[in-house]
Amino acid sequence: MKNISIIMFLSILFIASCSGNNMNVGSTPNLIKEGFISNTEYEIICLGIPKSGLSGIRKEESAKRAALLNAYFYAKNRFDETVIPDRDGEIAEFKMLEDYGELRYIIKKSNLKKRVKK
After folding, report:
1. What is the percent of the chain where pLDDT is above 70?
2. pLDDT of the residue at 6
3. DSSP letter at 49?
4. Angle in degrees, CA 43, 93, 115, rounded to 5
5. Beta-strand (E) ranges in 52-110?
6. Less Cβ around it within 10 Å: N or C end of the chain?
7. How confident is the model at residue 118 (pLDDT cuts 50, 70, 90)?
8. CB-based contact 71:105 (threshold 8 Å)
9. Total domain count, the chain
10. Is 38 part of any domain?
């Protein structure tokens, strides 16, 4: 019985070690600018890098989605839980450049300056 449990343990350990996670996550700066436009408006301008291998509208939409998720990330880290980025914000402008997209995202909410995380 002891031998079986040792063999099982070693088998699981071997399988876990062979399934290495080769995650290749790049660290690309994607925030261009952020700041208050007024007491009720906050602007975030960030980049979105499309998934490799795409072209045309698929490349553009991939870059737009990546930039939008980056804007959500920065908004969520900047404000308290009363600000919900996808509901309180909107895309003001999106430009597709050669290898990436540039998104201008505006969050609008009353007393927004008071909702900044301390």
Report:
1. 76
2. 58
3. P
4. 20
5. 89-96, 101-108
6. C
7. confident
8. yes
9. 1
10. yes
